[in-house]
Amino acid sequence: ANNLVYNLHLLTGKISQPGCGPFSLTGQPSACGTAREVGTFAHRLPADMVVTNEKHRDICEKKWNIPSGTIPAKIGLHAVAQDRALKDGKLNVYWTMCTNNMQAGPNINEERMPGWRDPRNFIIVSDPYPTVSALAADLILPTAMWVEKEGAYGNAERRTQFWRQQVQAPGEAKSDLWQLVQFSRRFKTEEVWPEDLLAKKPELRGKTLYEVLYATPEVSKFPVSELAEDQLNDESRELGFYLQKGLFEEYAWFGRGHGHDLAPFDDYHKARGLRWPVVNGKETQWRYSEGNDPYVKAGEGYKFYGKPDGKAVIFALPFEPAAEAPDEEYDLWLSTGRVLEHWHTGSMTRRVPELHRAFPEAVLFIHPLDAKARDLRRGDKVKVVSRRGEVISIVETRGRNRPPQGLVYMPFFDAAQLVNKLTLDATDPLSKETDFKKCAVKLEKV
Length: 446
Fold this sequence. Notes:
Elements: H1 2-12, H2 31-37, E1 44-45, E2 49-50, H3 54-64, H4 79-87, E3 93-97, H5 101-104, H6 108-116, E4 122-127, H7 132-136, E5 139-142, E6 151-154, E7 159-163, H8 176-185, H9 189-192, H10 195-200, H11 209-213, H12 234-239, H13 243-253, H14 265-268, E8 274-275, E9 332-337, H15 353-358, E10 364-366, H16 368-373, E11 381-385, E12 390-396, E13 407-411, E14 439-445
Parallel strand pairs: 3-4, 4-5, 9-13, 10-12
Antiparallel strand pairs: 1-2, 6-7, 7-8, 9-14, 10-13, 11-12, 11-14
């Protein structure tokens, strides 16, 4: 759908101007900032660089002062492939942060649960709450919430926003950054790098990963004295340098000068977020547009400078039929998604009393005629069954979601109704996005 929307905007010339800004609402908060831009996907590096590009790998390895060849050229496992690797015994240690995979991921019964509960594997979950994923893990690391640490996020309009730590985390909870730093202190380079890599950087022998990745001259050069006397920052005060500032300035270096410019760290604490590219202190409201984007010269109108010819790419992709369609036995389409009151798996929103009262449990939205044909009434309990699993829900024939005949809809926020026991693990061959929107189910009155 996103691809088609972008194509229409490009073909009609309705692009990079007010009212003509197509962008997707990504599935996770800060997915743009802390995944795409930073480069934490299995195929990416900072500032839109990728692991398959030798030049990009070389830039990163030199900046991070790590041996040439440390970054593999092979793309890592995407989310569904990780499940399969755990199940097949090819992946044995799995550490998740900022996600609730056991509830949000597809085909829980067949693809996720077998690998997570395999005694050969060790599963770690960092989370503030006892989510379904945390309860299925071997080790739970209590994790600080966003107001309990200092950090930043980036959203779909390219806006980077910073915040200060506001309160102390309760109990033994620590930020995810603190956890990664402590993990890096436990390993020396000889324990994680083969001899051929160490031979290229012999000065790194005997050093911990903390010294190589975090306590570097570039990252550790900002003193704790830059913090106000009463300013909370647990990580920096423990380590003795302004960790967040050092890491951000190191990261920002990758994007400056070629259309991904970020402002200096301190500028973000003086503004209500800035949209990159930020050049000479000025943010960019409309990218690729003359008069708005500093990388587009006078007279060029629009320039998509991410490509050598300055032109955007229109992808004409073939139709891909559904991996599974209704038949005589499983006679309904199932689509999944959200409701207004709850975000994704409800880890936080279900703990807000007002939101919980407004929508306390998931329901099965169904067309009144489909319900009548199955002798179902609003409020009835119903078993929703696919070829992969089953859940019990409540029939809803009214309300805001009114699916067409032949299709039922269930939100996935309710940990007591794991609708992703039903869904397929089929993925898009290009994006590797899972198809949560269509599979075949049948209904049985309870």
